[in-house]
Design goal:
The protein is built from seven helices and ten strands. By secondary structure, the chain is an alpha+beta fold. It folds into two domains: 64 residues, Orthogonal Bundle (Arc Repressor Mutant, subunit A), CATH 1.10.10.10; 160 residues, 3-Layer(aba) Sandwich (Chorismate lyase), CATH 3.40.1410.10. The strands form three sheets. Strands 4-5-6-9-8-7 form a six-stranded antiparallel sheet.
């Protein structure tokens, strides 16, 4: 090792490593509030600035998260889902990781006139009714996502009577109505939680959320469903595997 200069571990990095051990060893339980900054400064004998740099490092790495006015919390397991590369429903994506998912139906009603953006996405006129379905997805660690779905009723008679607490929408479309979902148009963005969304997802108002909008097509390139999904980024991140298309 003569002549090899080892990298210096800065003090705030050492503090960050200590904090990670508290999480990994179960001293700080998932989603529990960690000690206050003043408590940690006294325990670790470091400056507040050093501690704040360590916390910022772990917040960026999603090991910790902050709630304004309340404090800093230890993160739980963050799921990585291939929703950015495959046309999977959220439940299907979670199933791939062996996660047990429960669904709560918040709203389910027939709209005689769909919102204008839904009419555009589904290529329907103002007189065509749609099913509006709002659901919350949860795992053992808590609420993960809020989903708004709009489905054309003319193609799916009776779909408004399905129990979507126990059935998946894609499964109902394909199995019950003998249609094949071929592809979808999906946009991934960031949105801030409104008051209503914050209450459902148990986050602060204006907390940043992952936001997905999608239109789903069946055989014949017919749009049959469009959706909006808000996901807590402290509990799920989207993963995409891409390949470089080399010029020939």
């Amino acid at each position: 090792m003569a002549g090899v200069k080892l990298p210096t571990v800065l003090l705030h990095q050492q503090v960050a490593r200590w904090m990670i051990r508290q999480i990994e060893e179960g001293v700080w339980q998932p989603y529990s509030q960690i000690p206050s900054e003043w408590q940690l400064v006294e325990e670790l004998h470091v400056s507040r600035g050093t501690l704040q740099r360590a916390i910022a490092l772990l917040v960026d790495d999603r090991k910790l998260y902050r709630i304004r006015g309340k404090g800093t919390y230890a993160s739980g397991p963050v799921l990585e889902e291939p929703l950015a590369q495959s046309l999977l429903s959220l439940s299907e994506a979670l199933d791939l990781q062996g996660q047990q998912v429960t669904t709560q139906v918040v709203r389910s009603r027939v709209l005689e006139t769909a919102p204008a953006w839904v009419q555009t996405d589904l290529h329907i006129d103002s007189e065509e009714p749609v099913l509006y379905l709002q659901r919350v997805k949860q795992t053992a660690d808590g609420t993960i996502a809020l989903l708004d779905n709009y489905v054309t009723l003319n193609l799916f008679p009776g779909i408004q009577r399905v129990n979507f607490c126990t059935r998946r929408l894609f499964d109902v479309i394909e199995r019950d109505h003998n249609l094949t979902i071929l592809w979808g148009s999906r946009t991934i963005d960031v949105a801030l939680a409104t008051d209503a969304i914050a209450r459902v997802l148990h986050v602060e108002r204006k907390a940043p959320l992952l936001y997905l909008s999608q239109v789903t097509y069946v055989t014949g390139n017919i749009p049959v469903e469009c959706s909006r999904v808000w996901i807590r980024p402290d509990r799920m991140r989207l993963k995409s595997i891409v390949a470089r298309d080399h010029p020939r």
